[in-house]
Amino acid sequence: AHIVREYLSPDFLRALNTYSLPTLASEIMGTSMYHLNILVGGTSAVKITTGVVEVVVKGAVYSEYLIAIYVVSKVLLPIEMFGSSDVPPPPPCRSPPPLRSG
């Protein structure tokens, strides 16, 4: 679970273009780490990214003043713990050495 201090209603999320906010863990630890970046795509799909993974908000499980719980398409992983998603591809595989005939 990722908790933010602000109430973000479904209508508010859909009205955003881009928005970045700290999670409660950032505030408690006094750090600028653990941010969520909210984006609204051309299809009006609300997406959240941590820098490691991008998820699509599938819908609200619960949304009343002060509390909103959303279903997302994947688990959000913090970049500070799991690194960037910009991992270079592995080097190409080498061919095995030719067999010696003896």
From TrEMBL:
This is Fasciclin domain protein. Residues 87-102 have a biased composition (Pro residues). Its main location: membrane. Residues 82-102 are annotated as: Disordered. GO terms for cellular component: plasma membrane; side of membrane. It is a lipid-anchor; GPI-anchor. The lineage of its organism: Eukaryota, Viridiplantae, Streptophyta, Embryophyta, Tracheophyta. GO terms for biological process: plant-type secondary cell wall biogenesis. It comes from Trifolium pratense (Red clover). InterPro entries: FLA_A. Keywords: Cell membrane, Glycoprotein, GPI-anchor, Lipoprotein, Membrane, Signal. It is found in: Cell membrane.
